[in-house]
Design brief:
Blueprint: E1 20-23, E2 27-31, E3 34-39, E4 42-46, H1 48-56, E5 61-62, H2 63-74, H3 82-95, E6 99-101
Antiparallel strand pairs: 1-5, 1-6, 2-3, 3-4
Helix pairs in contact: 1-2, 2-3
Amino acid sequence: MSDVAVDSALDPYRLPDEAVVRSAWDDALERGGEMLVLAGNDVTLLSPVATEAVLAARRGIAVGELSRRLVVEFGEPEGIDAGDMARDIITVLVSRGVMTVDASE
């Protein structure tokens, strides 16, 4: 997966900054800043940004905190709000079974 580019305007559910996300996978290989992840029967190649996101979310992290961490590691994204970028990455990783959103209740 290259750096995630998902139109967040198409996502009907906007995760609040307080929402906690967690990553989960069955096996992974990390090399050169990228990560090859096995989640269920699906294999996904993660970009360095997505790799940082799943490693940061291994024990759970709030969306806002994840966004700030990605900015510290990679700088401000061009042409998109950092929070929206983090939500786009989360959306794709959830769809691939690599990340989950904790229930709010």
